Amino acid sequence: MKKRVLSALLAACLVLTMAPVAFAAEGDTTATAETRAGSYEVTADVAVFRGETLVGQSDSLSDAISAYATEGDTVLLYNNITLTEDVTVDKAVTIDGQGYTVSKDAAVTTGITVTASYSTTPPAIQNVTLDGFGLTTGAGLDQLTLTDVIINNGTDAAVTVNTGKVFITSGEYTGTLTVNDGSLEISGGTFSSDPSQFLAEGYEAYQAANRYWEVQAIAPESEPVVGAPEVSVSEDIPEADRAAVQDAVSTLNVEGLDSALMEAASDADTVLTDARRTELLEEAKATLTPGADETVTIYVQAYLDVVAKAYTAGSALELDITPTVRYVGSTAETADGIDLSEGGNAVVVGDSSKAAIPTGTSVTISLTLPGGFAESGA
């Protein structure tokens, strides 16, 4: 059998030792491996690791689990394997297929049945393809998680739950989903049969063009709102005048635009796709890092972007006022609570765009000008 070497990275340097090393005889694929300066020689199809230490290996999945594994161990595949007998996983291990495939011969009737109970670490199966048979739970199982598992079992059962709770987080499952006792909770994956009755809270299933069912998180809702004007002062204005100009534009009051701005926000919200809304939500979460009891909402906010572009003391103040729509992610329960200041509860995500205001909209703009301007009629 071709030898495969799994090497561990050393933090500082390779330490050589004269300690005795146990080697397996050629063809003895079930011998326990010993630590050898941070490297392990895996010569079998299946290896059992306890933390970073290889504790046993075998060409048989059943033998590797029964002979070497204990709760919390990881059972790794190093090759495609064919089951010659039904396998019962009665220890709370993680079976990691590392992308390999498990098939079966004609003598196998059930395939793999998981019956393991656990005290601290529940069993899990991940990164493996089961070809020609499904997965079953049996008496004793408390909990099992399936991640990136591919099951190809035609029209027969892909997953059969007879006891315990099974979580499916991702993968592809061709075959039926059957729950005789216990429960099944699905939060991701692709399925040939409708998984709707087993969905976790906050998830939905839709049938794709290939007739398979896709499970995804329910797209978050967004809310159109009108925000207060956002004012800034151009660096083209002399530094000595900027404070006075900033104070002036901060008093800006606009009347007659609220309805038009809300309509612009609503229009932007209407064309926002579920996929894009989800992307914006993830971007906001990455910045805000909300607590477990906080919910991030995407607000589609229309506001006036006001820039003081030019200023001549006592005679002229030029403002550039642009109706704008942007996306704001916030943990605020209502729009009134949005705080975009540094360290606040909100962040701007995605791209902004100019809001369309209907021609002929009547608008009144007022502000307190800096000192020195002539009064009306003076």
How does this structure look, described?
Helices cover 12% and strands 41% of the residues. The chain is built from four helices and 26 strands. The strands form four sheets. The chain has a 17-stranded mixed β-sheet that branches. The radius of gyration is 32 Å and the shape is elongated. Residues 1-38 have low confidence and may be disordered.
How would you summarize this macromolecular structure in one to three sentences?
With 378 residues, this protein is mainly beta.
Which range best describes the helical content: under 10%, 10-25%, 25-40%, 40-55%, 55-70% or over 70%? 10-25%
Let me know the average pLDDT.
87
How many β strands by DSSP? 26
Secondary structure class reads mainly beta
How many angstroms separate the termini? 101 Å
Series of H and E elements: EEEEHEEEEEEEEEEEEEEEEEHEHHEEEE
Catalogue the unreliable spans: 1-38
Query: How many helices in DSSP terms?
Result: 4
